[in-house]
C-alpha cells in the first residue's frame, strides 16, 4: 500500500475483493475485505546481503549465506519512512559481524530536503560527512541524514514520508 504524503492519521480505506469461478454448471464465489488505516511516521528496515568471491565480481551466494575466508560480503540496509508523518533523528546502525574485517561503508538517500547530507559515526555521538576508514571488531557503524545543517543528527533532523536511506556495508571474511 502506498499512501500519499499528507493523508490524515486515522483515515481508513476499505477494499473488498470478490472472486467468482464457474466450472460447468457450478458457480462458487468468495469475498475478502481489507482495511488499511493511516498511521503516523513508520520506519521500514530491510537488510540483504550478497557474498562475492574474494573482492571480484563473481557472486558466491546471492543471500550472503555462503562465505569463505577472503570472500567479501556486501550488506545493504534500506530504511524508508512508510508513514504519513516525518520521523525525527533517524539513525541506522549495524555492527561489524564477527569473524570479518571492515572494508568500506557508503550511504545514499532520497526524498529529503535540498541541502541534506549523510553523516557517519562510530560511536553514535560524534558525526562526520566522511565515512570511517576502519572499524574495530564488534564496533558499529551509525548513519543518519543531517537536514538541519548543524553537522549532527538530532531531533531537528527530519525524515519526510517516503524518504529513504540506503547503506552499503562491505566486510571481508577472515
Residue stretches low in confidence (pLDDT < 50, at least 5 long) are none
The major beta sheet can be summarized as: 5 strands, antiparallel
Number of helices: 0
SSE sequence, one letter per element:
EEEEEEEEEEEE
Shape: flat
Provide the residue-averaged pLDDT: 90
Radius of gyration: 22 Å
Quantity of strands, as a count: 12
In terms of DSSP E residues, the strand content is over 45%
Helicity, in percent?
A: under 10%
What structural class do the secondary elements suggest?
mainly beta
**Biggest sheet strand line-up:** 4-3-5-12-8
Ends: how far apart? 42 Å
What does this structure look like?
Helices cover 0% and strands 51% of the residues. The protein has no helices and twelve strands. The strands form four sheets. It has a five-stranded antiparallel beta sheet, with no helix packed on it. Strands 7-10-9 form a three-stranded antiparallel beta sheet, with no helix packed on it. It is flat and about 70 Å long.
Amino acid at each position: 500500500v502506498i499512501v500519499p504524503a499528507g493523508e490524515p492519521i486515522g483515515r481508513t480505506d476499505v477494499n473488498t475483493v470478490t472472486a467468482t469461478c464457474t466450472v460447468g454448471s457450478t458457480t462458487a464465489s468468495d469475498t475478502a475485505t481489507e482495511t488499511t488505516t493511516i498511521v503516523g511516521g513508520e520506519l521500514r528496515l530491510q537488510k540483504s546481503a550478497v557474498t562475492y568471491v574474494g573482492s571480484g565480481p563473481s557472486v558466491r551466494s546471492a543471500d550472503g549465506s555462503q562465505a569463505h575466508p577472503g570472500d567479501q560480503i556486501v550488506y545493504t540496509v534500506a530504511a524508508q519512512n512508510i508513514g504519513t508523518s516525518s520521523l525525527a533523528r533517524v539513525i541506522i546502525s549495524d555492527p561489524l559481524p564477527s569473524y570479518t574485517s571492515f572494508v568500506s561503508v557508503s550511504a545514499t538517500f532520497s526524498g529529503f530536503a535540498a541541502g541534506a547530507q549523510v553523516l557517519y559515526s562510530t560511536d553514535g555521538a560524534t558525526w562526520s560527512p566522511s565515512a570511517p576508514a576502519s572499524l574495530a571488531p564488534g564496533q558499529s557503524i551509525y548513519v543518519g541524514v543531517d537536514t538541519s545543517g548543524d553537522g549532527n543528527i538530532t531531533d531537528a533532523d527530519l525524515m519526510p514520508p517516503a524518504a529513504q536511506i540506503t547503506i552499503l556495508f562491505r566486510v571481508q571474511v577472515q
